[in-house]
Amino acid sequence: MDDTVDRQWVADLVRATIEEDLAGGVDVTTTATIDPGQVSVAELVARADGVVAGLEIAELVIRLVAAPDEVELEYSVTDGATVREGDVLLTVRGKTRQLLTAERTTLNLLCHLSGVATLTRRWVDAVEGTGAVIRDTRKTMPLLRSLEKYAVRCGGGRNHRMGLSDAALIKDNHVLAAGGVAEAFRLVRKAYPDLSVEVEVDSVDDALIAVESGAELVLLDNMDIPQLREAVGKVAGRAKLEASGGLTLDQARAVAETGVDYLAVGALTHSAPVLDIALDLRAELDSRDA
Fold first, then answer.
1. In the annotation, is 200 catalytic?
2. Which residue numbers delimit the Quinolinate phosphoribosyl transferase N-terminal domain (predicted)?
3. What are 45-62's pLDDT values in tens digits?
4. In which domain, by residue range, is 143 found?
5. What is the pLDDT, as a whole number, of residue 51?
6. Are residues 149 and 91 in the same domain?
């Protein structure tokens, strides 16, 4: 994880996910079948090709379930790495009970975040060479935004605003309530003169109004390829332009080639399939080796 992720918050989140699984009790199956002194070596293994994100979070889960000094970890790759089916990502040695108790929470987080990174990389690869940048949105799972946006960065994408207070995005309902694009922009700029302001529009005419009002970033919502080209031509570099709404991977390059600066893709976080990763016990050691 990088410095943009609040590690204490992540630790609290992971504790809550572990507690959800244990529900205040114990792992009854593991407790019944595994000797408390047994030690194993486990590997986190990719079951499909993709991009990894969340290995430090996987480590955190394991260390919180086990006593920190009772596990040894060896990384084979780091977050952001491209992996192939069968690649070992992380090797862990520790008490078998603890490894198996931590397994599902570890994989839930690691597979999801790696899925976000993998999908992001596909979009990034699709627009490579066009100059356009793939960005995420606030369409994230509740309480997972920080981690999902981190995973987007692992996949080569960039982040849009984190929340409602670090940047302004004037959307259609704001425009309607304020009485027009120009008036909405004026009100936001007056209230927050130092804040980044983006204006969402659904027509080329409104895009020009936004630019003439002083907007430096305009979101072109649900425009087709000809409309995007027209907007790029008429704005003529006076503002950054972001395509958004209904974008699909198979049309990503065509959208990027219109000359827009960004593609905002909600699917990176709200529709990413997991990357299949498994925890495999590779060896069992005599409890006297613990």
1. yes
2. 27-114
3. 999 999 999 999 999 999
4. 127-270
5. 98
6. no
